[in-house]
Amino acid sequence: MAFVITDPCINTKDTACVDVCPVDCIHPRKDEPDFDQTTILYIHPEECIDCGACVPACPVAAIYDSPESTPKSQTSLIEANAIFRSGDSATLAKAEALVSAHVAAHPELMAIPPADRANAHNK
Ligand code: SF4
Ligand code: SF4
Questions:
Q1: Which atom of ligand 1 is nearest to 26's Cα?
Q2: Do the Cβ atoms of 5 and 42 come closer than 8 Å?
Q3: Which domains does the chain possess?
């Protein structure tokens, strides 16, 4: 089990979750060189300890508490979270390709402001 970051993080990416994570498993951080190259942040599924601290910290409700609870419209982003490794350009490219495909597949969600987008995930 691990927490999953989803599409309200796109165009938000404020790193509020990074600041509260006790095990530093959310990347890239602002001080990592690949920060500017990602459209969202990613949670390392094996390092996350399921503490839940990131969920209330996120201003746009982008974080779900498990792959199983992640809405169907967001399932491709579960894999994006799982494969990204900060400092590894190959995994960055794969994760960002999944995000780009998600954006292309969900214009209806991208038309909604990030703060309201999670409310539409299950519709
Ligand atoms: S649930 Fe806890 S350990 Fe996992 S990403 Fe969120 S803050 Fe970090
Ligand atoms: S707090 Fe939410 S919007 Fe901000 S970086 Fe983390 S997941 Fe993205």
A1: 5
A2: yes
A3: 4-120 (3.30.70.20)
